[in-house]
Amino acid sequence: MKKNYLFIGISVLIIAFSINNLTLDIDNRGHYIGNGILCGIGISIFVTQMLRLIRNK
């Protein structure tokens, strides 16, 4: 159970970091692509862990 909350916390940190990093003034296409991929990974981890918590209740 604690493992699910750990992954949820990590995914929220990944999402927050990538959104904060997107607000920087960097005009590089690779920067935006990398942050989009990182945000997608964070969202997918968050959703899978939330679904596991809902199923285990």
Give an overview in words.
With 57 residues, the protein is an all-alpha fold. The protein has one domain. The chain is built from two helices and no strands. The longest helix has 28 residues.
Name some characteristics of this structure.
mainly alpha, elongated, 57 residues
What's a concise summary of this model?
The protein has helices at residues 2-22, 29-56.
Uncertain runs with pLDDT below 50, 5 residues or more? none
Quote the distance from N terminus to C terminus.
Answer: 11 Å
Write down the secondary-structure element order: HH
How many domains make up the coordinates?
1
Mean pLDDT over all positions? 86
Annotate the secondary structure layout.
Elements: H1 2-22, H2 29-56
Helix pairs in contact: 1-2
